[in-house]
Amino acid sequence: MQLLLTELLEKNRKWTHFGKVAAYIPELMNANSNALGITVVDIEGNVYKAGDYEEKFTMQSVSKPITLMLALMDRGAEFVFERVGMEPSGDAFNSMRKLETINPSKPLNPMINAGAIAVTSLIQGDSYEEKFQRILELFRKLSCNPNLKINESVYLSEKRTGDRNRSMAYFLRDVGILEGDVESILDLYFKQCSIEVDCEDIARIGALLANQGVMLGTGEQVVPKEITQIAKTFMVTCGMYDASGEFAINVGVPAKSGVGGGIMCAVPNRMGIGVVGPALDAKGNSMGGLKILQDISKELSLSMF
Ligand SMILES: NC(=O)CC[C@H](N)C(=O)O
Questions:
Q1: 285 inside domain
Q2: Record-annotated residues binding substrate (predicted)?
Q3: Is 305 inside a domain boundary?
Q4: Is the pLDDT of residue 105 over 90?
Q5: 20 to 30 A Cα–Cα from 268, which one of 65, 181, 284, 304?
Q6: Domain around 191
Q7: Are residues 146 and 105 in the same domain?
Q8: Separation of 158 CA from ligand 1 center, angstroms?
């Protein structure tokens, strides 16, 4: 396994030159566009690493299935899905064009920005600070990393420039999907996106999802099985934005990408995989990450289909 990872990583490193780091959040331009790293955590708890697996990156959209699980634990599925849909959008992650044309007017799914902002607004807590602490605590628990924290510069950079998300959030309050202070909700969302991780952190979260919500080692049921099933299903249908169909064909496992360059995979009953490669393709997915996952899936017959 170790040999295979190293070999596939070096084989696919060239792809990083064909992508570009995200620029619409200015601070993300400082990411190392040549980096490519991977960590696998299998269900037995074995850990394998290759390449630039120590590279730090911010969760960005990789955070979306995790806050979805917290909102589902806090509010129940009925309440959550009254406010956000279950269908792929076929549009870019930050698109807002369908918000006004669909009826009832609610974001199509929790993996696009509009849906994720709506989900984040549902997290319980007496104050926004408490809500954020609850989000951070869950991320720390699932990743088995008590030291996770936000990258302040990335957070401030998105807060300063995130006008597209801001406009969607105000629209969502107008149509009654969001309640409360829009700026505080956005602040919470920007903070969740700015949580800084490495490949192993997201591989461990992927492994917990792959293991039906049960923590490896301790056997603790951290997230109810049905909720992990919902999260994984969204990862299959919408996790790679408007490239989810292609990814399902080429790789065939539940996965979530983010514009920080991360991709988190949960291979049911087998393993969690964390990949980093900040050079992105036109749809915002890690260029090198996609290629290495495609190879690993073939070599290890990971596709669920
Ligand atoms: N696709 C992403 O990773 C998007 C996350 C980013 N924070 C945004 O809201 O635009």
A1: yes
A2: 61, 113, 158, 165, 189, 241, 259
A3: no
A4: no
A5: 284
A6: 62-195
A7: yes
A8: 9
